[in-house]
Amino acid sequence: MNTPICNFLEKYANENRLRLHMPGHNGEVPHDITEIFGADELYSSDISGGIIGTSEEIAAELFGAKKTCYSCGGSTLAIQAALALLKAKGCRRIAASRYSHRSLVSAAALLRMDIKWLYPNEYMSADVAYNSETLSGVDAVFITNIDYFGGTWKFVKPNLPVVIDNAHGSYLKFLDKRRFGTEYVHPLELGYPMMVAESAHKTLPVITGGAYLHFADGADGARAKEMMAMFGSSSPSYLILESLDRFNGLISRNSQLVNNACEAVLELKERLTSVGIPLKKSDPLRVTINARECGLSGYEYARGLRSNGVECEMADENYVVMMFSALTTIEDCERAEMASMLVTMGAPKPLVTYPKIIPKAEMPVYEAMFKPQRVVSIENADGEVCAGLKCPCPPGVPLVMPGEVIDREVIDALKVYGVKTVPIIAKSSIEG
């Protein structure tokens, strides 16, 4: 398979030219270049016919998209561009799961779009009801596919424009569904118009910041590059572009790359279960351990893993999440198994119940985020209006949204999350 970006960078590095161009390290990192002659331009690559455009066309074919745009700003940039495209089509209000990444909130604020929040039944779950009732009064829908614990949403076909945050699920396109479960479908396999934002760097061998914005048949991506340029850096990283391009060649040469990794993780899950380590159901490249049943908090279990040479992706009061990748080997899984078995466990404890709060909105997000603010302790925030995003990262999901009233119920919930301070809108700005 052709890897035009990789080929160009290797050729340029070998020519040993005098680099009288950016970046200023003068070739210390040989493949780190700027948009020099022949290197194409990221934000016009769909019309240039150059190396980036060619690579994006290859990626689109691999993923089954009508069009694919590379992002050097992660799924965040892809989500920003997708919402801008909706805005250009007249979208004013979008429905979204309360379990949505902060990038949705900030993009909506910048674009002055209102959000109708849909609440899952379970804390931080992607499983939200999308139906005629929940989607009434909106112009589009924003769907999170895989959540941080590895859960999925129930597939529906809304008669509305759709943006799917598939940040954790780019590998699903290459997954054998008969082996690992038909619920783990890649959104582009559903067969209806949508835009799909996904972080390649989360589960594929791509460096941090590498992502895609895919367009399915029927989704209009004509102005995609224009919208990405509005939010993205004018100096995109060629190291990120190279890694996206390299994956095209890798998956073309080894179509079973993802399935081999998922097989190793599946065997790990089976071995952990067989020795009494309780797992929460999760997608094929994730192991979510119920730490409470092991007599620990998720944070304590994570410290145990760390002391045994394993760093997890995320922990909270209840769970520990280990995220694997398309390059995961049997040896990697054996190390994870050994580290897990060395964690000292105790008597089971009940799960911590995270409160489900539905705060009252005093004003739209896009107004609240640009009001004058001050930071106070949560105990002094009763009756105030939230002015900023408070969210642990990971998972990067806001706990209370800008513009929402912080009452005693919200304060009690924030305590459970470990939040101690919160930005509030200055009284004078509300009264004024």
Give a brief rundown of this model:
The protein has helices at residues 4-15, 45-48, 51-63, 74-88, 102-110, 177-180, 200-203, 224-231, 238-253, 257-274, 298-307, 330-341, 365-368, 408-416, 427-431, and strands at 67-71, 93-97, 114-118, 140-144, 162-165, 195-199, 211-215, 279-280, 286-290, 314-315, 319-323, 373-377, 384-385, 405-406, 421-425.
Give keywords.
432 residues; alpha/beta; Aspartate Aminotransferase, domain 2; Aspartate Aminotransferase, domain 1; Ornithine Decarboxylase, Chain A, domain 4; 14% strand
Describe the fold and architecture.
The chain is 33% helix and 14% strand. The chain has 432 residues and is α/β, with parallel strands linked by helices. It has 3 domains: 4-253, Type I PLP-dependent aspartate aminotransferase-like (Major domain) (Aspartate Aminotransferase, domain 2); 257-341, Aspartate Aminotransferase, domain 1 (Alpha-Beta Complex), CATH 3.90.1150; 365-431, Ornithine Decarboxylase, Chain A, domain 4, CATH 3.90.100. The mean pLDDT is 94.
Topology:
Elements: H1 4-15, H2 45-48, H3 51-63, E1 67-71, H4 74-88, E2 93-97, H5 102-110, E3 114-118, E4 140-144, E5 162-165, H6 177-180, E6 195-199, H7 200-203, E7 211-215, H8 224-231, H9 238-253, H10 257-274, E8 279-280, E9 286-290, H11 298-307, E10 314-315, E11 319-323, H12 330-341, H13 365-368, E12 373-377, E13 384-385, E14 405-406, H14 408-416, E15 421-425, H15 427-431
Parallel strand pairs: 2-3, 2-4, 4-5, 5-6
Antiparallel strand pairs: 1-7, 6-7, 8-9, 9-11, 10-11, 12-15, 13-14
